[in-house]
From TrEMBL, chains A, B:
This is Metalloregulator ArsR/SmtB family transcription factor. The keyword Transcription regulation applies. Coiled coil: none annotated. Residues 130-219 form the Rhodanese domain. It comes from Mesorhizobium dulcispinae. Keywords: DNA-binding, Transcription, Transcription regulation. The keyword Transcription applies. Residues 6-104 form the HTH arsR-type domain. Pfam families: HTH_20, Rhodanese. It comes from the Bacteria.
Length: 221, 221
DNA sequence: CTGTCATTCAATCATTCCATTGAATGACGA
DNA sequence: TCGTCATTCAATGGAATGATTGAATGACAG
């Protein structure tokens, strides 16, 4: 593994980063870390994985400069190194969306009505919110909501959408968002609301992208 | 390997793309394909690798939707699927440049004078060329130059830089470019020219980025 | 100092990846 | 139709990766 020449040495380093992104579980970890910093244990719980496994994957991500670790008493809090990570994940996703037939197949079979659900863009949402025309719900778990959400959003975790909808005004359109562009929860929330007679749409992507776009973020009281 | 749920299925697909980028040789292949479409054999020759090896890596890239294959008589010509691939590689590179200490170390030890070599931006180059203030040289091999180059550039392959410099006007600044931001050839060309008394700088990146930026490209006659 | 708890390390096994070799395929030209 | 040549396939061995287990580390509380 001697360094042959600078170009190959550099490509080896770039490959380490790409390789670190090349595992489904690590991509899911990044999605969760994009909501906010987490301890190893908390992340493991979110993903339903053994702690040791998550720890090892976190170290792979750290070697690649994708996440940063910070000791906090007994805990070690991991967070994304910076927004460039989200950009990288998004661009990998873009390649897959354009060229991998399997992605299209999955989207069609699971999100059949996706085209019906014309997503709401961030700009559009801002206008709708300003004019008070829609109810915005954040369908992520409360802890993620607490770490930052779109101003004016109500936290309605996915499991409570049905109950919530009974107390909501059916004539008012609902916009739902969650962790990111392919986070399933907002798809399901919209589907549930529609089956209950609501008018509902998704935000085009999730909290991390909203934040990365420099838009205001509200923290829990 | 059954499909558990749509989210995991999607992440598996995204991981395939990232994994395909996670090998130094494949990254180098992408750099070459970014110069123009190539047959398997031609690419293998460029990289000094056995044809079968390159063929297998190309298939991994094709499965990931990164390259596209097209039969051309006896040959199969491979090309990048589209510009989104360059974006993805660039964003992976950006993560590495920001956060992988090793990248910094390599850059320092091999390109020590890098800071001295303030690169010329594309906009700056266009202004300089318009005013006729600099000589622009393309230090890639002639076949790559033929597939597209910056208008007004002279093809001076790296090996011929020294000879060429004797016939060139020493008082005129030279700008060199090659395959991309980390292509070694332009670094070396600039170093050689400076040691021969020329004033020389690099273009900030290479041909593929120039083209991707929508700037004009000139083909060989 | 000791116990507790979050995290990391070390070792194992199964799986996948990678390079190499030589044979098979597929298209062209004679 | 046959030979040639570019490419792909199949099989091999060696290396790296990933999940699991249990032990080791490191920091805090008492």
């Amino acid at each position: 593994m001697s360094i042959r020449n600078p170009k190959q040495a550099l490509y080896e380093q770039f490959a380490i980063v790409a390789k670190a992104l090349g595992h489904p579980l690590r991509l899911e970890m990044i999605e969760h870390l994009a909501q906010g910093a987490r301890s190893v244990e908390a992340l493991a719980a979110k993903l339903g994985q053994p702690v040791a496994n998550i720890s090892q994957h976190l170290q792979a991500l750290r070697r690649a400069g994708i996440v940063a670790a910070e000791r906090d008493g007994k805990f070690v809090r991991y967070a994304l190194a910076d927004e460039s990570v989200l950009t990288a994940v998004a661009s990998v996703r873009a390649v897959a969306e354009r060229h991998v037939a399997e992605v299209d197949r999955i989207v069609r079979s699971y999100f059949e009505t996706r085209d019906d659900m014309r997503p709401v863009s961030r700009n559009e949402l801002q206008a709708l919110m300003r004019d008070g025309l829609v109810t915005l719900i954040d369908v992520r778990p409360p802890d993620e909501f607490a770490l930052g959400h779109v101003p004016g959003a109500i936290n309605v975790p996915l499991g409570e959408v049905k109950a919530w909808s009974h107390s909501a005004d059916t004539s008012r359109e609902v916009v739902a968002y969650c962790r990111g562009p392919w986070c399933v929860m907002s798809f399901e929330a919209v589907a549930a609301l529609r089956s209950l007679g609501h008018s509902a749409r998704r935000l085009e992507d999730g909290m991390p992208e909203w934040k990365a776009a420099g838009l205001p973020v509200e923290m829990a009281a």
